[in-house]
Every structure is written in structure tokens, then in C-alpha cells.
Specification:
Blueprint lengths: L13 H11 L4 E5 L5 E5 H17 L7 E5 L4 H12 L3 E4 L6 H11 L3 E4 L4 H7 L8 E4 L15 E3 H5 L16 E6 L9 E5 H11 L12 E4 L11 H8 L2 E4 L6 H10 L4 E4 L1 H14 L8 E4 L6 H11 L2 E7 L6 E4 L4 H4 L3 H8 L4 E2 L4 E5 L14 E6 L20 E9 L5 E6 L4 E3 L2 E3 L1 H8 L5 E11 L3 E10 L7 H9 L10 E4 L13 H8 L5
Parallel strand pairs: 1-11, 3-4, 3-5, 4-8, 5-6, 6-7, 10-11, 10-12, 12-13, 13-14, 24-25
Antiparallel strand pairs: 1-2, 8-9, 14-15, 15-16, 17-18, 18-19, 19-20, 21-22, 23-24
Helix pairs in contact: 1-2, 1-3, 1-8, 2-3, 7-8, 9-10, 11-13
This protein binds adenosine-5'-diphosphate.
Length: 540
């Protein structure tokens, strides 16, 4: 018989996170870009107060624990209050991705049975287009004051957030309930079939947020100022809106302005030490910084994930700008990052280029999460850095089943990610491809990610995508698409020669097409499905 532990059984609740920040780091600032332009600043104490006012306002609207309240919003202070006011009340915040197609938005709002919607003024045209198709949504709340409230034809009762919470008391007794209660809902972007809902529990979010602050992960402390570029409308902005208050770090929310110049200026003005975003955001930022000959005075670390960070960009951040890249992996189903890399003392003794190659991998699993790669029959493959298979993951912040899903996707208690990976002897995982993107050529696999990362190191290349195209002899062969940097050009043979020095000869693409742009989906990733539909013909 085991001995029962004799510690208190206190639930891990999101309301406790903001109250912790208010009590312990009450004067620490939250700086937020208003949707209409100016910067707004207040403290965690103010944020907690207004979150309680929102909780009272939601109750006054007749909303009850378990109800689903949506948001379509940028990273800003009102969205932050919604993260706490909604979940803290025992309701579920459904963060909707504004980049989804209108039909998908309508689908997820109805599927969720959402009762109210908080939205930024930017998205008023979107709301106008979908409102009539969302009968369960009874209240539309614009995250603004009355002066910035847009008129939306066909939506009778749009309330201004400030008017709604202004008269409400700042006293609210956060309810206590089971930590496994649903707190936030986010749908996958559904490149195949309908989007699927992932319902995060309070426990999952609090545990991930604490783990995310660890020194080997994002390393967040009360000495940091953190600017999450990763959107609060997708995968909880990697739980940074929870992690920053846990750590007592100053939080800078960039609102709608995500171009290189705006981000750089905000980073410098607010003395940002740490940031997080997808590789394409960092490409834009570095392009601006390079063009103007600037330097980062305080930024020292940046978390990157969502798609593979090319080694060339890692090198530029580290060697030219002394910014350390922390490369992580996660998906909607994993709450936020599940793996992240940090150079160990042994890695730091290696030549720079080898260090960058290690950072280009997606790191080690966070404590609490377990990873393995398996072959087609489900057998675990060795951790040798070369055996590739599907990445399986399990842990307290990994999905068990989809919201209103018919059956659990788990296999023997592990979540199959649909990503192909290797794990090496040090436990470092590398994503080689998605199962649907990998190119199967002559019985071997070619990693589209590796080809893309190799070619974007060429100075004329801005973006690249590689897809497999049917081939009569080899089954599939790679076809590469290139977007050049503005005012730059390069010939096909030059790129092939460039690649020949970096990848195996049989990996070289059978053709390279130069295009003006690539189709990008709801989470900022190239939509290879669309490329395959358009160009999936047969090489002869
Ligand atoms: P989707 O891309 O389908 O909208 P997610 O936003 O959940 O869904 O993306 C998760 C996927 O993104 C992962 O399964 C993986 O394929 C990819 N991904 C995430 N981080 C990385 C990374 N650092 N390197 C390569 N791929 C990544």
C-alpha cells in the first residue's frame, strides 16, 4: 500500500496566477499597443482589478460557469484581462484565429456553442460577415471604449468593453473548482477536414506556463521584459500571458503592429530582453535591422517555433546580434511548447557552426512531457539521431481527446503528432517533416524542411517551399518554390549548385519555380496542400 501524501490539495487555477502577480509583483508594468495606435500602460495590480471587473460584467450578462466566451483579438491588455476574467470565472475562453477562412470561423463558433464574443475593432468587417451565421452568440463586445466602437451593420447590440466593465465592482471572489476544468479552447487550423477543438484545462495551462519559465526553456524571471509576438489567438501565445505574471516579468503586448520597424522600436523603447514568435516574424525584423544598420540594446533571447527556424537565421541572430535563439516545437494539441533547445556546456565548447546546427533542432522535452519516435508498426525507434519515425508525445498538458470528438486519437496513451522526427543520444529531437509533406523518393525519405532551410541560406532567397511531385520511376521527387528578396535575382543553376554543397545529390529538386508569393494559412505557415493541388502533376 502506498502512503497517502499529506500535503494540501489546492487546485492549480488561472485566477490564482493573476492574483499572485498582483500581490507579489503588483507594480510591474504591462505595456500594450491599442488597436487604434497609442501605447497603454498599467500594472499587474490594475490588470487583476480589471479582470475581476470583467468577471462581474460577464456574470451580469447572465453568463455561467462552463459557458464559452470567444475572442478574436490581438495581443493587448484587454485580451489579457479576458484570459483571466473568463477562465477565472470558470468559463472557457475560445480564442478564434482571425486568419481562418470565414466559413471555418462560423464552423468553430457554432461547434463550440459560443455565447458571447470579444473582438478588436480591426475585426469588425469579419464580425459583420459572420454574425448572422452564429445564432448562439448573444453578446458582441468590442475591446475598446465607446469612442472607438465601430458600427457594424446587421449586428444590433455591440457593446464597448470599457462601458461594460466600467460600472462593475473590482471585488470578485474567484470561484474554486477542480483544476481539470476547461479554461481555454483553441481549434486546429484544419488543413484537412474540419478544425478540431482542443480544450485546455486550468491544470495544463498553469503547469505548462511554469515549465515554460524554466531556465532551459524560455528562461523568464522578474528581471525580464517579455514581448510575445506569438498571437494570443492561437495556442495561448505559448502560455506567455500566464508565464510572465507567474515570473513577475514586465509584459509588452504589440497589438496589431507586427512589422519589423514597429517591433524593433517597441523592443528598444521598452527595453525588451526576451521575445517569442514564428520564424517569418524574425525574418521581417532582421531585414529591417540589417537595412538600417541597427543593433539590439537589450534583447538577448528569443523563442522560436511553429515552423523550422533556418540555421542561417539562427547564426545571424547569434553571431551578428548576440541574440540567443531558443528553438522549440509544439502544436495546438500540446498547449504551448513541448520541447525546446538550450546549448549545454558541452555544446558551447563546439565550433559556432556546430552550435547553430544544434539550435536548428527542436530541443529536449520539457520536464513533464515525454517523447519518442516510432516506426509504422508502432515500435519505438532508437535514439541515434538518424532513425526517423512519427513523433509521439504524452504529458499533463498534451491533449487526451478533441472537444466533442468521437474517439480519442491516442495510441497506447501517446498522442501521435503527424510529425516525422529523429531523437539523438542526448535526447535532442529534430523535426524532419510532417507525415504529409515528406517526399518519398525511391523508397527513401527527403525532408522538405531540410531542403527549405538549406536554400534560404542563399542571400537572394526570401522564402522557400518544397513539395513532393509524383514521378513514374521514383514515386515522388522534390519540386522547389522560391520567393526572392526584393530587388534580388538568382538563376536556377546557381541555386542547384548552392544546394549541391549542402544536401545529398539525390535530394536536389527536379525543378525550381520562381514565384512572387507563397500561399500562407491561418497560422502563418506555407500551405503545401494548395501547392500540391496546383502543381501535383507528374514529372516525366
Ligand atoms: P497547424 O500548423 O496545422 O495550423 P499548429 O499551429 O498546431 O497547427 O502547428 C503544429 C505543427 O507545426 C507541428 O505539428 C509541426 O509540424 C509544426 N512545427 C511547430 N514547431 C516547429 C518547429 N520548431 N520546427 C518545425 N516544425 C514545427
Amino acid at each position: 500500500m502506498h502512503q497517502a501524501g499529506l500535503m494540501m490539495d489546492r487546485p492549480l487555477l488561472i485566477s490564482a496566477v493573476i492574483e499572485h502577480a498582483a500581490a507579489q509583483y503588483g507594480d510591474v508594468e504591462v505595456v500594450s499597443r491599442e488597436t487604434h495606435g497609442p501605447l497603454f500602460r498599467y500594472t499587474y495590480r490594475d490588470c487583476a482589478r480589471r479582470s475581476r471587473q470583467l468577471a462581474n460584467a460577464l456574470a451580469d450578462l447572465g453568463l455561467k460557469p462552463g459557458d464559452i466566451v470567444g475572442s478574436i483579438a490581438w495581443n493587448n491588455h484587454r485580451h489579457l484581462e479576458a484570459y483571466y476574467g473568463v477562465s477565472g470565472s470558470g468559463m472557457v475562453i475560445h480564442t478564434c484565429n482571425p486568419r481562418l477562412h470565414a466559413q471555418q470561423l462560423i464552423y468553430i463558433i457554432n461547434h463550440a456553442g459560443q455565447k458571447a464574443m470579444l473582438f478588436d475593432a480591426t475585426f469588425a468587417p469579419l464580425i459583420k460577415g459572420i454574425a448572422a451565421h452564429c445564432p448562439t452568440v448573444k453578446t458582441w463586445i468590442c475591446l475598446s471604449d465607446a469612442a472607438h466602437l465601430p458600427a457594424i451593420d446587421g449586428v444590433a447590440d455591440v457593446r464597448a468593453y470599457e462601458d461594460l466593465i466600467g460600472p462593475c465592482s473590482a471585488q470578485f471572489n474567484w470561484p474554486e473548482f477542480d483544476e481539470n476544468t476547461g479554461a481555454a479552447l483553441c481549434y486546429t487550423s484544419g488543413t484537412t477536414g474540419n478544425p478540431k477543438g482542443v480544450l485546455y484545462s486550468h491544470r495544463a495551462i498553469v503547469l505548462q506556463a511554469m515549465a515554460g519559465c524554466m531556465p532551459n526553456v524560455l528562461s523568464v524571471s522578474c528581471r525580464d521584459t517579455i514581448l510575445p509576438v506569438v498571437p494570443m489567438f492561437h495556442i495561448n501565445a505559448w502560455c506567455i500571458p500566464y508565464g510572465a505574471p507567474i515570473a513577475g516579468a514586465k509584459l509588452v503586448l504589440p497589438g496589431p503592429r507586427l512589422d519589423g520597424e514597429s517591433l524593433y522600436t517597441l523592443m528598444e523603447d521598452e527595453k525588451v530582453t526576451l521575445s517569442a514568435g514564428v520564424p517569418s516574424i524574425w525574418q521581417g525584423l532582421i531585414a529591417y535591422v540589417e537595412q538600417k544598420g541597427l543593433r539590439f540594446s537589450t534583447m538577448r533571447r528569443t523563442g522560436v517555433g511553429g515552423s523550422a527556424m533556418p540555421q542561417a537565421l539562427i547564426a545571424k541572430f547569434a553571431d551578428t546580434y548576440q541574440v540567443e535563439v531558443r528553438h522549440g516545437w509544439g502544436m495546438t494539441e500540446t498547449t504551448a511548447v513541448a520541447t525546446m533547445g538550450t546549448l549545454t556546456p558541452r555544446d558551447l565548447a563546439l565550433p559556432k557552426e556546430q552550435q547553430h546546427a544544434i539550435v536548428a533542432r527542436q530541443g529536449k522535452s520539457l520536464c513533464g512531457v515525454e517523447i519518442k519516435v516510432v516506426d509504422a508498426g508502432g515500435a519505438t525507434l532508437p535514439r541515434n539521431g538518424t532513425s526517423q519515425g512519427e513523433l509521439m508525445v504524452r504529458g499533463p498538458w498534451i491533449l487526451r481527446e478533441y472537444f466533442k470528438g468521437e474517439r480519442s486519437p491516442l495510441q497506447d496513451g501517446w498522442f501521435p503528432t503527424g510529425d516525422i522526427a529523429t531523437i539523438d543520444a542526448t535526447g535532442t529531437m529534430q523535426i524532419r517533416d510532417r507525415t504529409k509533406d515528406v517526399i518519398k523518393s525511391g523508397g527513401e525519405w527527403i525532408s522538405s524542411i531540410d531542403l527549405e532551410s538549406a536554400v534560404v541560406a542563399h542571400p537572394a532567397v526570401a522564402m522557400a517551399a518544397v513539395i513532393g511531385v509524383k514521378h513514374p520511376q521514383w514515386d515522388e521527387r522534390p519540386l522547389m518554390f522560391i520567393v526572392c528578396k526584393p530587388d534580388q535575382a538568382v538563376e536556377k543553376y546557381e541555386l542547384l549548385a548552392f544546394l549541391a554543397e549542402r544536401v545529398a545529390k539525390w535530394w536536389l529538386p527536379d525543378d525550381i519555380r520562381f514565384v512572387d508569393s507563397l500561399p500562407v494559412g491561418g497560422t502563418g505557415k506555407v500551405q503545401k496542400e494548395e501547392l500540391r493541388r496546383k502543381y501535383g502533376g507528374v514529372f516525366g
